[in-house]
């Protein structure tokens, strides 16, 4: 069992400790799931997480508030048990984040379904020519009076192909670059919205390139105001970037756990690995990185929950540090496992593949450095 002493840190309340205990017991009984069909596995996971009540935390209707500490605790715990379960939970939150923060009551009706596990959601921001450079979005939304017409492409869209609803960021053209974007809620069955390509990656999950061919979207589906799309996207990422760090932390804790078990049980040169000082050096580094990442993540989450208008700097620090350090922690775990560490299907081998994308999506490590530097200089 992973170290739980962090739950006594002052960032947490009793409700968080109760949530953690409930989820830990659910995850121990239900995870990991079979990953051989990731589409079906994600649909099943969303249904199960919805039924068990955990998806209630993934969104917030008017009068409610997203609790970032709960989101982080859930992602950390799920990731420790099963990366795909974390993914399924995370997408329900990211995909509806703009609705939780800026949606009208009518638009928020989607949350009833996504939080019950009856609909899947996706966040459609990236395009072939705008991954890190969000202000360069080209997908156009033309104002036609009572509706908009969307044309263009989105790519690297997680849950693409299985989502029931997409949050789509498009160019409405009020001004150049960042000030000319708007956000829309677009049902997956909208005419003209097609899955152009399914994308396969080293730790598979549902992922696709989408094409919008004259997709008609009612004006009432615009989230927030025309031209506010960039700030809406950034506000959503301010909440969810800390949770990406939390998922990385879950992977790192699992890698540390596996390493401790290995170091205590495997003998080398007539004694357990754990007695070798070089192994102890690695374990010290791993434990330190895990605790430091947890401090940054829950600092960011707590700051947001306490009412900070923006946690751009805190969230960027949490994501950057936790994901980069988790990669190092897992690499050490692989090293200490020797041949077993690179054997297909071993736990540390799958962690090694799972962690890599977290240093890229929702703002690559390099982008987080830009964000931190700008915030520090301002
Ligand atoms: N919250 C609210 N507003 C924000 C904000 C935030 N976190 N970040 C920026 N803004 C505002 C700025 O204040 C600025 O508004 P004003 O001109 O009124 O001051 C506006 O948005 C434009 O910001 P900025 O000039 O910083 O935009 P840039 O084009 O330089 O882009 C980066 C900034 C690179 C940080 C942004 O494009 C980014 O985060 N890229 C990574 C995208 C990403 O995460 N992609 C993954 C997709 S999801 S898998």
Automatic annotation (TrEMBL):
Keywords: FAD, Flavoprotein, Oxidoreductase
Keyword field contains S-adenosyl-L-methionine: no
Domain Acyl-CoA dehydrogenase/oxidase C-terminal: 227-376
Cofactor: FAD
Gene Ontology MF terms in the entry: acyl-CoA dehydrogenase activity; flavin adenine dinucleotide binding
Record-annotated Acyl-CoA dehydrogenase/oxidase N-terminal domain positions: 14-118
Domain Acyl-CoA oxidase/dehydrogenase middle as annotated: residue spans: 122-215
Family note: Belongs to the acyl-CoA dehydrogenase family.
Official protein name in the record: Acyl-CoA dehydrogenase
Organism: Maritalea mobilis
């Amino acid at each position: 069992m992973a170290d739980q002493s962090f739950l006594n840190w002052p960032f947490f309340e009793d409700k968080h400790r109760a949530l953690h205990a409930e989820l830990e017991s659910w995850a121990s009984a239900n995870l990991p799931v079979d990953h051989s069909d990731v589409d079906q596995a994600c649909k099943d996971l969303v249904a199960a997480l919805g039924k068990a009540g955990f998806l209630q935390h993934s969104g917030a209707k008017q009068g409610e508030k997203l609790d970032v500490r709960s989101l982080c605790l859930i992602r950390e715990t799920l990731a420790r048990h099963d990366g795909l379960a974390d993914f399924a939970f995370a997408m329900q939150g990211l995909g509806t984040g703009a609705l939780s923060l800026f949606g009208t009551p009518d638009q928020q009706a989607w949350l009833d379904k996504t939080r019950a596990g009856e609909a899947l959601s996706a966040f459609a921001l990236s395009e072939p020519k705008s991954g890190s450079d969000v202000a360069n979005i080209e997908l156009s939304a033309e104002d036609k009076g009572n509706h908009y017409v969307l044309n263009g492409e989105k790519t690297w869209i997680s849950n693409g192909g299985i989502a029931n609803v997409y949050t789509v960021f498009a160019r409405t053209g009020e001004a150049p670059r960042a000030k000319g974007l708007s956000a829309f809620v677009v049902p997956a069955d909208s005419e003209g919205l097609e899955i152009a390509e399914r994308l396969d990656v080293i730790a598979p999950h549902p992922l696709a390139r989408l094409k919008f061919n004259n997709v008609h979207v009612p004006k009432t589906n615009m989230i927030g105001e025309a031209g506010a799309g960039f700030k809406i996207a950034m506000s959503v990422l301010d909440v969810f970037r800390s949770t990406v760090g939390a998922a990385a932390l879950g992977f790192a804790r699992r890698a540390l756990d596996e390493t401790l078990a290995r170091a205590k049980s495997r003998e080398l040169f007539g004694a357990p690995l754990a007695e070798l000082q070089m192994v102890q050096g690695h374990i010290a580094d791993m434990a330190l990185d895990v605790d430091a990442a947890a401090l940054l993540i829950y600092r960011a989450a707590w700051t947001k929950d306490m009412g900070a208008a923006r946690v751009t700097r805190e969230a960027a620090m949490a994501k950057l540090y936790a994901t980069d350090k988790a990669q190092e922690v897992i690499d050490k775990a692989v090293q200490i496992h020797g041949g077993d560490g690179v054997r297909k299907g071993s736990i540390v081998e799958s962690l090694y593949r799972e962690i890599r994308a977290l240093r890229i999506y929702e703002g690559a490590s390099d982008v987080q450095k830009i964000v931190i530097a700008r915030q520090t200089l301002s």
